[in-house]
Automatic annotation (TrEMBL):
It comes from Leptospira brenneri. This is N-acetyl-gamma-glutamyl-phosphate reductase. It is an enzyme of class 1 (oxidoreductase). Its main location: cytoplasm. Catalyzes the NADPH-dependent reduction of N-acetyl-5-glutamyl phosphate to yield N-acetyl-L-glutamate 5-semialdehyde. The gene is argC. The active site is at 150. One of its GO terms (biological process) is L-arginine biosynthetic process. It catalyses: N-acetyl-L-glutamate 5-semialdehyde + phosphate + NADP(+) = N-acetyl-L-glutamyl 5-phosphate + NADPH + H(+). Pfam families: Semialdhyde_dh (PF01118), Semialdhyde_dhC_1 (PF22698). GO terms for molecular function: N-acetyl-gamma-glutamyl-phosphate reductase activity; NAD binding; NADP+ binding. The lineage of its organism: Bacteria, Pseudomonadati, Spirochaetota, Spirochaetia, Leptospirales. Keywords: Amino-acid biosynthesis, Arginine biosynthesis, Cytoplasm, NADP, Oxidoreductase.
């Protein structure tokens, strides 16, 4: 198998660490450069003593020169990605960005959700949204990919997989999702995400203001009329995993066989989508440390309830990034992800 060199800018964060582990065990990728302004100069094995088979690399600062032949993974905060992505694209490199900076095509919605000015919005004409189940063919030829958000993936896929049934949806879609702390505070140490504040506790946060809400709206309804989504995230006292409950209303009753057919088609052809016979079977423990998105549903009257689950560090971040990298560089889509 051919070897492709990669650099991870921001490898010191939780998602960067997860992707470092995945790439280290991938037969087609060679990790040649890692950065972190916080642990600059330290050996990667010193920073990640719990990971095996890591390359002989030391961390550099974000602005250090990157080997010319390396593709770029940006696992950086939003503002850093805004600065670094254009630089690497101008050098002719392939870039995949794990931040939210290049996901939304509506600049007004972006700046309201992310609370800063987007000065490189012209690049949105080049970017491909990194959800293989929806944009696989585009990803195979992409030079610039924006990896989806974790909460967003847990809602976008279940909604989008409904296909033409989405045209009949009435009123706002309600997304009620719960995440482990690694999905809510993945980079900086904040007291609200610390163990002492989540142990024996459970709470909502960013109610109706979370930055993934417009992302759900744009891509959950891609190819059809966009509907409003009302999203409330919650913080669980666990490390990893997201479980989302999605409430969808229709003007008249909907046949469960129609929904099951849509989901069965996806589960049969998509390597990382699994459909359960009941929503109660969908659990966080079944998807932890995997790249799967699990689904189950039930209908009562005019209301469809879908329960989905994914690992926020895998299908919600690093695993999905590797899935996208495989497509971008011509490797089997599941390489490095099916033997975890």
């Amino acid at each position: 198998m051919k070897q492709t060199k990669l650099a991870i800018i921001g490898a010191g964060g939780l998602t960067g660490k997860e992707l470092t582990k995945l790439i280290a065990h991938h037969p087609g990728f060679e990790l040649v450069h890692v950065t972190s302004n916080q642990v600059d100069g330290k050996h990667i094995r010193e920073v990640f003593p719990d990971l095996s088979h890591l390359p002989d690399l030391k961390f550099h600062k974000h602005d250090a020169p990157v080997p010319k032949e390396a593709g770029i993974v940006l696992a950086t905060p939003n503002e850093a990605s805004l600065e670094k992505a254009p630089e690497f694209l101008k050098e002719g490199r392939k870039v995949i960005d794990l931040s939210g900076t290049f996901r939304l095509h509506n600049q007004t919605k972006f700046e309201k959700a992310y609370q800063f000015s987007h000065t490189e919005f012209g690049l949105m004409d080049q970017v491909v949204f990194g959800l293989p189940e929806l944009f696989r063919e585009k990803l195979k030829n992409a030079n610039f990919v924006s990896n989806p958000g974790c909460y967003a993936t847990s809602a976008i896929l279940p909604i989008a997989l409904l296909g033409n049934l989405r045209k009949e949806i009435q009123g706002p879609v309600i997304v009620d999702a719960k995440s482990g702390v690694s999905g809510a505070g993945g980079r900086t140490e904040e007291i609200k995400f610390a163990y002492t504040n989540v142990y024996e506790n459970f709470r909502a946060y960013k109610i109706l203001t979370h930055q993934h809400e417009p992302e759900m709206e744009e891509y959950g309804f891609v190819g059809t009329e966009e509907k409003e989504i009302l999203f409330t995230p919650h913080l669980l006292p666990i490390y990893r995993g997201i479980l989302a409950t999605i409430y969808i209303s229709f003007p008249k009753g909907i046949d469960p066989k129609q929904v099951e057919e849509k989901f069965q088609v996806a589960a049969s052809k998509e390597p990382f989508v699994r459909l359960y016979s009941s929503p109660e079977e969908v659990e966080i423990r079944k998807i932890q440390n995997t790249n799967f998105l699990d689904l189950g549903f039930r209908i009562k009257g005019n209301t469809l309830v879908i329960v989905s689950a994914l690992d926020n560090l895998m299908k919600g971040a690093a695993g999905q990034a590797l899935q996208n990298l495989n497509l971008m560089y011509g490797y089997p889509e599941t390489e490095g992800l099916v033997t975890l």
